[in-house]
Design goal:
Elements lengths: L1 E5 L5 H16 L3 E5 L13 E5 L23 H17 L3 E6 L16 E6 L16 H10 L16 E5 L9 H5 L4 H15 L4 E4 L16 H6 L3 E3 L13 E5 L5 H7 L4 E2 L28 H9 L2 E3 H5 L2 H12 L7
Parallel strand pairs: 1-2, 1-3, 3-4, 6-7, 6-9, 7-8, 9-10
Antiparallel strand pairs: 4-5, 5-11
Length: about 350
Amino acid sequence: MKIAVCETKRTSRGLYLQECFVKGLMLHQEEVCDVSDYPDIPSVHSQDICYHTCSMNYTVIPEGTPDYVRSYGKYRPQDSVFRSKLFKELNHHEKPVIIAEQGYLFHGKSEQKDEDDYYVSLGVGGIKREAHYFNKNSPPDRWKSLQEKVGERRWCHPSLWREDGSHILIFGQNPSGVGTANMRKEGLSYEEWLRNTVKEIVRHTDRPILYRPHPTRKRRVGRSSAYTTPLIRDYPQFSQVSPFKPLSSAFDGCWCVVASASNASVEAIYHGVPVITSDPMSMVYDISSHDLSEIEYPKMLEENICQWFYDLAYAQWTHEEIRSGQAWSHIKEGIINENLLSIS
């Protein structure tokens, strides 16, 4: 199989992940095409499938913009132009694409010290729930292995849902990130989504509402945030908490989580806290409530919840599993079995 490996994340972590993926491909004797500069972009049309790190939340570059222009952003602004031109080429040729993103549990922003143990999601044709993971009805082996690795056993049976809690926890998102793409398609800004969400919650419950901003919004986490100041003023039960404390501590005393497509929702389910999300991109959409009117009685799936975790374990891989070719072996088999190459 011919695979274009596209260099879209030029950080040390992004390049290391790409190196691991290439090593896995080489062990399978695949034909690898490096796409790391503008002259390489046209070569993607002759490849069977492409790989890149991180979803393409790209900047629209005006027609006629010269290559290597330094016109966008603070860090390596030419990368934005490269990514946008690459994305346009991939769309034009409708190539199947493997997207490497942050994993759903134990993904390196948790407390692991060894980077090789970080989990990375590898989805074909999208991210989160919109991707192909070839993981339906997966066996329990990888889930059991994950639990042995982290020294914590959860979800051996469906009785681990939390039965108490006092407050509602809203997970924030990066307003311009891919996780808010669906709300933007509906014509909502992130600020409007947050305000509408709080307004609807208070119609159905008088529980305290805690808002945890996205950790990337470092400059906007104070109580004077443009997003939260009006909410704090208008809704006495609303307050903001720090996004820099361990995520697990956010679930202490939590009755229910409300989110759009935040991956933190997966950790909420892992800790037995039900989730309400109306965004079909959310990884927990199939096991969650979708309407805030259910906030006092959120969905707590019992049938097949363990199977959901078994499947989840086949949607994320450690760097070592990627480097060894184990992840590619699983993905390649799925691509062939589901005949995804026929779309290119």
